[in-house]
Amino acid sequence: MADVARHAGVSSQTVSRVSNGYPGVVDSTRQRVLAAMRELGYRPNSAARALKSGEFRTIGVILFTLATTGNVRTLEAITTSAAREGYAITIIPVAVPTQDGVHGAFTRLGELAVDAVIVIMEVHLLDTSTVTLPPGVPVVVVSADAGDRYSVVDTDQADGTRQAVRHLLDLGHRTVWHVAGPEESFAAGHRADTWRAILESDGRPVPPMLRGDWSTESGYQAGLQLLRESGCTAVFVANDQMALGVLRAFHEGGRRVPHDVSVVGFDDIAEASSFIPPLTTVHQDFTETGHRCVEGVLRQMRTDAPERGTTLVPTWLVPRASTAPPPA
């Protein structure tokens, strides 16, 4: 740094400000310092800077799968939000969602030197005694029922489901069938519980629940089963990929959507508006979810205090052409 300062004719403090991206340096001076850095082959030593400041400018992300839309889009939003704050992301995948797997991930993140951790759970772990997170590190958890012990960020699963089911009932359907996600998924369980509670509170018949694994193929198989249910006029599907499979099964079986049966999905993926017909679905704001996660861990770092409680990001129904009143 001293060599760069002499070469550029500035102080070492100015070199430091330029290398750290601080504002307030005259542009001509900044360009002269950058030119000197290039000529001398100077590159700031991030490890030395971390030792001096006590910050590594890195957030660790622990997750169990990148196979679901929610996880991928939430991770993308976390990465973008972290970069905007000057932080990098280190991803640690956990093959098996167990206590040992989570603790092993925390250990690896400790070795890689991160300032905070975001855990994308997707499965029922923290809402039981199965897994506890090591203390002493700022943590935010995505999609879990553990707000009494950790800081949790989630989209409003219950309200999104309520809007979807109410939409179908308000159209005049006697009841609503449900294709749920996998049993181990927190989000799938919350949506299924809310679906059932709404029907029961309205005194509506509660049809047998079908279950998929988030994939289009599992939705297709559920759709084939629904074809055998002559009284099925409305279906709430727990994600858009499975809803696509349901639409295919209905098309092949001669059940017209929405003339014979209405279908609502969940997620509002980019392709949902291009389904045939365009899919009515619940929009999840994954961008805001990722932003809230980064905001939460940075706040804990700055205040040096852990947080508890659940932050819900609003969801909303996006009506399209896959829903209509039941056939007369």
Automatic annotation (TrEMBL):
Keywords: DNA-binding, Transcription, Transcription regulation. It comes from the Bacteria. GO terms for molecular function: DNA-binding transcription factor activity; transcription cis-regulatory region binding. SMART domains: HTH_LACI. Pfam families: LacI, Peripla_BP_3. CDD domains: HTH_LacI (cd01392), PBP1_LacI (cd01574). Residues 1-53 form the HTH lacI-type domain. This is LacI family transcriptional regulator. It comes from Phytoactinopolyspora halophila.
